[in-house]
Amino acid sequence: MPDSEISALAVYLVPFAAIMAFYFWSRSRKESHSAAQLKEATEAGLTEPSSLHPEINPVKCLGAGSCAIACPEGAIGLIKGKAHLINPTVCIGHGACMAACPHGAITLVFGTEKRGMDIPCVNPEFETNVPGIFIAGELGGMGLIRKAATQGSQAMDAIGKLKGSANPLDVVIVGAGPAGLSAGLGALEKNCATSFWNRKARSAAPFTSIRATKLP
Q1: 187-196 confidence digits (pLDDT tens)
Q2: Which domain holds residue 96?
Q3: Which of 19, 137, 31, 38 lies closest to 82, judged by CA?
Q4: Model confidence pLDDT, tens digit, residues 112-168
Q5: What is the dihedral of CA 49, 53, 57, 62, to 10 degrees?
Q6: What share of the chain is helix, strand, coil (3-state, %, to 5)?
Q7: Is residue 124 situated within a structural domain?
Q8: Same structural domain, 144 and 186
């Protein structure tokens, strides 16, 4: 091979080799940091997520790392080319990791092998086995804000179809989370006499209430 061709080849190969070396060094450093975080969480006994969290299928995971980048809490990291939940207790279950995964390796689940999760049984309209009591949002197992709000709205649509009663209130909403606020807006739209209850922080009275009556 002529010297000119060798020189031309070196012009491309040397920068490429330098870039690849930096990439693997950077990835190895991040994986070591993730492994250290997982070890620290394990030693501290902080391995059980509190609510909705990602479950990663190691067979489908190809180590792209998009889930780790998408997680704003830093709950996911790569170890030996696979994604792991390295800091389970900081996970809040918003599902950004699942949306970012290009291989469908992540599903959102409740509970773990060590700790189960009791979730109320509701029908497709979010009514429990007690007639007239509806559950939507995190209490029903859905911690994602957008989906909880959708459930609250759908539950109120189902409530709006029920027959009225002699009770002066049509609806009592407990909790001012995404589902509760969405249900409250639905009740207002349907002109329902509503009592809204929410826990009051740092107060002698455990709950505060807002009451809305029907418009004339």
Answers
A1: 889 888 888 8
A2: 3-109
A3: 31
A4: 666 655 667 778 788 888 888 998 887 776 666 777 888 889 999 999 888 777 777
A5: -110
A6: 40, 15, 45
A7: no
A8: yes
